[in-house]
Amino acid sequence: MKTIKYIYAVITISILLQITLFCQDKEPEQVKFLYKGDSVFLNSQHPDFVQDSFMLGWHWGGSQKISKAVEV
Asked: How far apart are CA 55 and CA 50, in angstroms?
């Protein structure tokens, strides 16, 4: 009975290890979105999505002192 539990544990650990290693190797694919009637990637190359200032606010956990320091 102990050997069955040992074999079950080894198989379970090996399956979890394989799943974990496989998941760490996968990169997410970029998805196109429908924006203003056109199918585009939402990246910084698009002129409407260029970030030219800090995007920090209280909703991101920034306190009032930090928000004043970065002039948000």
From this structure: 12
Amino acid in the structure at residue 49: F
Length of the chain equals 72
> In the chain, how many domains are there?
1
Indicate whether 11 pLDDT > 80: yes
Contact 16, 32 (CB under 8 A): no
Question: Following CA atoms 42, 45, 46, 51 in sequence, which dihedral angle do they give, to the nearest 10 degrees?
Answer: 80
Full residue range of the structural domain in which residue 48 is found: 2-69
Of residues 23 and 64, which shows the higher confidence score? 64
Which pLDDT score is estimated for 52? 78
